[in-house]
Design goal:
The protein has 289 residues and is an alpha/beta fold. Helix content is 37%, strand content 17%. The chain has one domain: NADP-dependent oxidoreductase domain (TIM Barrel), CATH 3.20.20.
Length: 289
């Protein structure tokens, strides 16, 4: 598995990342998913404090408590800033965002505890908050960095303008913007989202890189060249993202070990330039201008 830096001053991650969004599962199942990922060279795991109604970090952390040696083999990403009504968070009665200095620091501390780790490799603001105060976010990030509790910082779902605004308040780089991008959702290749990251030499992370699975069910024609590459549709969809010069890191969300292995093998597929554009033509429904 290829490993690459998100930024010149950022972390080194596996090019394919295992996402824990759906891992609200028995510990034995999650343990098997972790081991399957590591065996394929996928060493980076993507979390958020809210995943699995606030359960998934704790399940993962219980596994690390039982086998602390696993932590040395992996990198951990988590996100904060979203709150919603839940029995686990009874103070919330409406879904909202909280990017205050106090909440970011509390959330990071809580994730350290639930993930059973002394540090987080990468902390992201989960969604752009209309009430985000960049001075407060910068203060929280700086304190967490200076304490060694979080090594690197980024954002998720930010527009180019929002990314640059927050970056202007920091003395260290935001190392990624995790955005929705796939063959089915390819607008970021044309709306400036990837261009601004390349301007700052920052690699994006891609959530839902298979379009939520819908693309694989409804658009078989886009994968007509799979036989040429001895590849599956999943591998073709990931290889299409991996070819982009921004250096996209796809975050896969499967709960099946065999799909993890299948996804990991996509790193070996080098799409021909015209095949790449033919796939784009099919999903766009038109030729390039």
């Amino acid at each position: 598995m290829q490993r690459k830096q998100l930024h010149a001053n950022g972390p080194v991650f596996s090019r394919i990342i295992s996402g824990a969004w759906r891992w609200n599962l028995p510990e034995t199942t999650v343990h098997a998913l972790i081991e399957s990922s590591l065996a394929c060279g996928i060493t980076t795991f993507d979390h958020a404090d809210i995943y699995g109604d606030h359960n998934n970090e704790a399940i993962f952390g219980n596994i690390l408590r039982k086998d602390p040696s696993l932590r040395r083999k992996m990198e951990l990403v988590t996100k904060c800033g979203i709150k919603f009504p839940s029995a686990h968070r009874p103070a919330s009665w409406v879904k909202h965002y909280d990017t205050s200095k106090e909440h970011i620091r509390w959330s990071a501390e809580n994730s350290l505890k639930t993930l059973a780790t002394d540090y987080i490799d990468l902390l992201l603001i989960h969604r752009p908050d209309p009430l985000l105060n960049p001075e407060e976010v910068a203060g929280a990030f700086t304190a967490l960095k200076q304490s060694g509790k979080v090594l690197h910082f980024g954002v998720s779902n930010f527009t180019p303008a929002q990314f640059e605004m927050l970056q202007s308040y920091l003395s260290f780089p935001l190392v990624t913007n995790q955005i929705e991008i796939s063959l089915a959702t390819h607008a970021p290749m044309f709306d400036g989202s990837l261009d601004i990251l390349m301007k700052h030499r920052v690699a994006p992370m891609a959530w839902s890189p298979l379009g939520g699975g819908k693309l694989l069910k409804d658009d078989a024609a886009v994968f007509s060249k799979a036989g040429k590459y001895a590849a599956t549709q999943t591998q073709m969809a990931l290889a299409w993202l991996l070819k982009h010069p921004s250096g996209i890191f796809p975050v896969i969300g499967t709960t099946k070990p065999d799909r993890i292995r299948e996804s990991a093998d996509a790193i070996n597929i080098q799409l021909d330039l015209q095949d790449w554009f033919e796939m784009l033509k099919i999903v766009q429904g038109k030729e390039m201008p």
